[in-house]
Design a protein that fits this description.
Blueprint lengths: L12 E3 L1 H8 L4 E4 L2 H6 L4 H15 L3 E8 L2 E4 L3 H10 L4 E3 L4 H6 L4 E3 L1 H11 L3 E3 L10 H4 L4 H8 L3 E4 L8 H10 L4 E4 L18 E3 L2 H13 L5 E4 L10 H17 L7 H12 L3 H24 L3
Parallel strand pairs: 1-4, 2-3, 2-7, 5-6, 7-8, 8-11, 9-10, 9-11
Antiparallel strand pairs: 3-4, 3-6
Helix pairs in contact: 3-4, 3-13, 6-8, 8-9, 10-13, 11-12
The structure holds pseudouridine-5'-monophosphate (PSU) and manganese (II) ion.
The site of manganese (II) ion (MN) has 3 residues, from loops.
Amino acid sequence: MTTPNDLLPNDLLAVHPEVAEALAAGRAVVALESTIVTHGMPFPQNLETARAVEAVVRAGGAVPATIAVFDGRIVVGLDEAALTRVAEAGATAAKASRRDLAVLLASRRLAGTTVATTMMAAAMAGIRVFATGGIGGVHRGAEASFDVSADLRELGRTPVAVVCAGAKSILDIPKTLEVLETEGVPVIGYRTDAFPAFFARDSGERVPHRLDGAGEIAAAAALHWRLGGGGVLVANPIPEADALSGSEIDAEIARAVAEAQTAGVAGKDVTPFLLDRLNALTAGRSLTANIALVKNNATLAAEIAAGLAGG
Ligand code: PSU
Ligand code: MN
């Protein structure tokens, strides 16, 4: 029998049998990233969250496929031992963006996959839906630093629907939306007209499109791909009960951004630095909200995956 896995460069891509079987049978699968595990949350909350998010995907009737890089392979679907290894490594693991992948595979390093590389791996494996927390974007001050996340280019080119809670206001959200437009990425607000700002339900920017059903989002994504399009960004606001108000978090975000500048943090270290400082500055409030919104995104991603699977 030919499974999707047989069609792929098996020496590079290791697809968990449960994931491969679901894909071969046309059942719903949801990809999950691992930079959120290695560089986005402290241990052990990162491991607990990764497990909980997988459970949410399963409860939604889809098979979870958490993606990471180790032993010279892109691994799609982590068993308990692999998930624990990735979580325990934390920031000692590498952070794999598109530019890093080949070298990390060649050197057999352990690495968390960002939104960009998780999209790449998902597309290679035949997975069309991916749930995360927040995407990378255009950093504040990018007119001087040129710091624009590779996530945005990847969204422009790779046909995967990414469910996120918008982008953290550590980023310049208007500029991020501009680049997404340039890249031809449909940004779809789920039951909202406002682009969400991760901890907050409204960034003050509008989404170009709003759809109120997972099935409608699946249909729009499928049409985008028929038209030769790449990524689709689904913006799913944090649940009301878990949201932090702007005034609760704005000062901490501004402080974290200023600290990064003073410390001369640059390049791939900027986002992990800001996430770490924010966790510390809010004494865990941001982490609790972060966990809630990732689960909320996993629920919607499972519904969209079911819609694409025809169920
Ligand atoms: N934003 C968050 N949490 C995260 C990330 C971004 O709120 O964990 C991670 C994601 O893996 C994202 C990556 O793809 O950081 C973006 O990094 P950079 O800005 O260096 O491209
Ligand atoms: Mn960057």
